[in-house]
Design a protein that fits this description.
Layout (H helix, E strand, L loop, with lengths): L1 H26 L9 H10 L5 H5 L3 H12 L5 H23 L3 H17 L3 H18 L3 H12 L21 H16 L16 H12 L10 H15 L1 H4 L6 H18 L4 H11 L3 H4 L10 H22 L11
Helix pairs in contact: 1-5, 5-6, 5-7, 6-16, 7-8, 9-11, 9-13, 11-13, 13-14
Length: 339
């Protein structure tokens, strides 16, 4: 018992160290290290009122934090980065500590993919995801009012978080493998035959101005064309398939595994279903849903034997994700500190 208590203590200390390091590493980067910081700097410089978001079409959470910082004379963009990182990174690390049986491996997965893509670059989406993972307890224990309030709060930082309301109805009890296999391969087939482009003709989209603008950008070539066999997309599809195939083994090892695998599957299915409409819509919804990879990718340990091979496989996946971010997508440049 004493050994368990000591082990938990050292684990907590180590994860706290990771949270502090990743928070400040993110917060004190120079503008230009990532692709979006110049855009955030432009918005930061023009916001002086809590309601400026209404004029510029930006979520009110960003406007509120920016205005508050300026009112207390913290008028550097890095203070904004710090506030967003303080909201986002520690919440995600705490989520990993609570739900992962292999938290160090989960931290590696987070660092290799989601950290640079969201906390370093898409900081509004990063905060929205952090609030969502804070709300996962409310899904698992069916506290709808609390869950809904948190999703509304998340939408104040990124409006697309509203779609996460649907995840409240994901059950952690059982999974119909046949239905999910059909949806998984059906979405892949639909993406390849361009079936989802028919949805562009539906009047529904005329009411969703933000989604419509994404679609128009895709049509004009302002965003990438969706490639169903793209390395990152195909990797996620194959991993989703494997975890679904072995779910009967996994669920006996982790009581929350059904929920997290379903989240990953929903992200993959939505990615392929919506990719034909807009890469921007598809990837945004997918990114909101698949933070669960920090937990679900560790499930390979439960069906790949010996355990060491499973760990090495997950580390290889992390290396591939990191390489894709840094050397293929060039999502960030060489790190330069603000001070």
């Amino acid at each position: 018992m004493d050994f368990v208590i000591v082990t938990r203590f050292y684990r907590s200390c180590l994860l706290s160290l990771f949270a502090i390091t990743l928070t400040f590493f993110c917060a004190f980067r120079a503008v230009g290290v990532d692709k979006d910081s110049y855009n955030y700097l432009s918005m930061f410089n023009i916001f002086y009122n809590y309601f400026d978001s209404l004029s510029f079409g930006v979520e009110p959470g960003f406007s509120f934090v920016t205005t508050l910082l300026k009112k207390i004379n913290l008028d550097s963009i890095n203070y904004l980065f710090l506030v967003f990182a303080l909201i986002s990174v520690p919440v995600k690390i705490k989520f990993i500590y609570k739900y992962s049986k292999y938290p160090i491996l989960s931290i590696l997965i987070f660092y290799s993919f989601m950290y640079f893509k969201q906390d370093f670059t898409q900081i509004r989406a990063a905060v929205a995801v952090a609030i969502y993972v804070w709300a996962i307890d409310d899904i698992l224990y069916k506290r709808f009012k609390l869950f809904f309030l948190k999703i509304v709060l998340a939408s104040f930082f990124h409006v697309s978080a509203i779609i996460l309301c649907l995840t409240y109805f994901i059950s952690n009890k059982e999974i119909n493998k046949r239905n999910y296999f059909l949806m998984l391969f059906g979405s892949f087939a639909a993406a390849n035959i361009k079936l989802t482009t028919l949805f562009l003709k539906l009047p529904f989209f005329s009411f969703l101005t933000r989604l419509q603008s994404y679609i128009e950008k895709s049509a004009s070539g302002a965003t990438d064309v969706f490639n169903t066999f793209g390395l990152l997309f195909l990797m996620q599809f194959v991993i989703s398939f494997l975890l679904l195939y072995f779910i009967d083994i996994i669920k006996d090892k982790d009581k929350h595994s059904v929920f997290f695998v379903k989240l990953l599957l929903c992200g993959t299915i939505s990615l392929y279903l919506l990719g034909g409409l807009s890469v921007a819509i598809a990837t945004r919804i997918n990114e909101l849903l698949v933070f669960s990879i920090c937990i679900s990718y560790t499930y390979f340990i439960y069906f790949i034997k010996p355990k060491l091979y499973a760990i090495l496989f997950v580390v290889f996946l992390c290396g591939a994700l990191y390489w894709f971010q840094m050397y293929y997508s060039h999502i960030v440049t060489d790190y330069v500190s603000w001070v």
